[in-house]
TrEMBL record:
Protein's recorded name: Arylsulfatase G
Residues of the signal peptide: 1-27
Record organism: Grus americana (Whooping crane)
Domain Sulfatase N-terminal: 29-370
Needed co-factor(s): Ca(2+)
Compartment annotation: Lysosome
């Protein structure tokens, strides 16, 4: 919440003027991937009529293609992001659950990122926003193919701030006066402030979340402007802090209830609108903008969580727990997705192709004229024929890994085959009422026909002709998928922890503040902060 600062508006205006430098001679297109955090399928007005807070995203949908059967590669943060940047499921790339503030490791170093491939192909590469794939040593984005990084190394609730905003349970601000002022609270990070990085330097700790959206827009515009002046095509990975929980504090607190979430959704929408304006000024025919969510909404946050739309996971909800984030129900991994590329991607089109964030890697690599990394298999597809409207055929089979609600993290116990969804394991994440659905194993699997039962309410009767007709195909697809993973070049992530690797600007100050509270340095503008702070890896 909040509006862009005059400085941010000035930077965007300069970018709009500066990005007119011709790049038509370059055949390689620019790429912008915007990834929203914990956004619900129903948080997009073009998807769900009840949503009124997304006019800019709805404009993108009207001027591009909307994908209504699009899925995140996992239903929680780190695995979803690792899969987007590698084109491989966590069962292959090793990232099966979230990294911590104290994590020593990250995305395994033998995994090749999309940024590394594109940089090798001549692209200027930038990452802005949430990383959550390791921050210590060479796991930092500056060593994973990105020429420029500006953002927070993990989720924006994984550190304290001076203005905590809205959360359930509410969290206290960062301590200011030593151990006596510290308040321990379950689910809250109170010891170390949330850091903001520029490349490998902490430029603010704690970060001011209320101005973060404006700063992201500003840095994105600057990055695109620099790339345009360099004459190189660019790849911008913009991983938003929105939605998660609305931790930014608006200038005027909204009315209680859904309005809090709606205000944050409006802010995210405005940020996307700013990026689109900069993109359009650069020349509409040379930049692909792809918007998607990293997983479904965080249901345990109640009115501070997103909208599922029709994907209720009713079978699970009847047994307790949430069917959203961390689960393999549709609400956990079916996410809003849009693609915009005037003159190349058809406008006002709705695609029902079965697609995934896994497809972003191979598709952009193909469009850039680059080659996929050798000696490994990919779960994503080059879906450029779908983007360009030449086809509406996506995956024949799509795998859904366990993401925290039930079963071993990263294991494949649910899959999609055409309109059929099969579950070998089910379970519910924590719901708003505190319930957690127990893990249940199914042999033979539960099978739902999503064409008739989008709410996943009533599985097919195992004795029915339909069940008996589709079960052999599902069993074969499942066995083949497990065999393909078992015989692949599989990585293993290091999930060890050490408090010493926690990002800390100044260990001499309470909560690792860059400046002691109350000093003049603490209120300097960000350029001064950049000069004053120190490298901290």
């Amino acid at each position: 919440m909040g509006t862009p600062s005059p400085r941010a508006v000035l930077v965007l205006a300069v970018a709009l003027a500066g990005l007119s430098a011709p790049q038509a001679a370059y055949r390689q297109p620019n790429f912008i991937v915007i990834l929203a955090d914990d956004v619900g399928w129903g948080d997009l007005g073009a998807n769900w009529a009840e949503t009124k807070e997304t006019p800019h995203l709805d404009e993108l949908a009207a001027e591009g293609t909307r994908f209504v059967d699009f899925h995140s590669a996992a239903s929680t943060c780190s695995p979803s992001r690792a899969s987007l940047l590698t084109g491989r499921l966590g069962a292959r790339n090793g990232v099966t659950h979230n990294f911590a503030v104290t994590s020593v490791g990250g995305l395994p170093m033998n995994e090749t990122t999309l940024a590394e491939v594109l940089r090798e192909a001549g692209y200027s590469t930038g990452a802005i926003g949430k990383w959550h794939l390791g921050h210590h040593g060479h796991h930092h984005p500056s060593f994973r193919g990105f020429d420029y990084y500006f953002g927070i190394p993990y989720s924006h609730d994984m550190g304290c701030t001076d203005t905590p905003g809205y959360n359930l349970p509410p969290c206290p601000p960062c301590p200011r006066h030593g151990a006596a002022a510290r308040v321990a609270r379950k689910d809250c990070y109170t010891e170390v402030a949330l850091p903001l990085f520029e490349n490998v330097t902490i430029v603010q700790q704690p970060v001011n979340l209320s101005s973060l959206a404006a700063r992201y827009a500003e840095e994105a515009a600057r990055f695109m402007q620099r790339a345009s002046h360099s004459g190189r095509p660019f790849f911008l990975y913009l991983a938003l802090a929105h939605m998660h929980v609305p931790l930014g504090v608006p200038p005027s607190p909204p009315a209680p209830g859904r309005d809090i979430y709606g205000a944050a959704l409006s802010e995210m929408d405005a940020l996307v609108g700013q990026i689109k304006r900069v993109t359009d000024s650069h020349g509409k025919g040379n930049t692909l903008l792809w918007f998607a969510g990293d997983n479904g909404p965080w249901a345990q946050k109640c009115e501070l969580a997103g909208r599922l739309g029709p994907f209720l996971g009713a079978w699970q909800r009847q047994r307790g727990g949430s069917s959203a984030k961390q689960t393999t129900w549709e609400g956990g991994h079916r996410v809003p997705a849009l693609a915009y590329w005037p003159g190349r991607i058809p406008a006002k089109r709705t695609s029902r192709a079965l697609l995934s964030t896994l497809d972003i890697f191979p598709t952009l690599v193909a469009l850039a004229g680059a080659m996929l990394p050798p000696n490994r298999r990919f779960d994503g597809l080059d879906v450029s024929p779908v983007l360009f409207g030449w086809s509406d055929v996506g995956h024949k089979v799509l795998l859904h890994p366990n993401s925290g609600a039930a079963g071993k993290d990263g294991e494949i116990t649910a899959l999609r085959l055409a309109q059929y969804k099969a579950f070998y394991t089910t379970g519910g994440a924590m719901a708003c009422d505190g319930s957690i659905g127990p893990a249940e194993h199914h042999q033979p699997p539960l099978i739902f026909n999503l064409d008739r039962d989008i709410q996943e309410q009533e599985p097919l009767d195992v004795a029915s002709r339909e069940y008996q007709a589709v079960l052999p195909a599902i069993s074969r697809a499942y066995a083949q998928a497990l065999e393909d993973i078992a015989t692949d070049n599989v990585s293993v992530a290091d999930y060890s922890k050490d408090p010493a690797v926690t990002p800390c600007c100044n260990a001499q100050h309470v909560a690792c503040r860059c400046q002691a509270p109350g000093t003049h340095a603490a209120v300097l503008d960000c350029r001064t902060e950049r000069r004053a702070t120190r490298l901290c890896l």
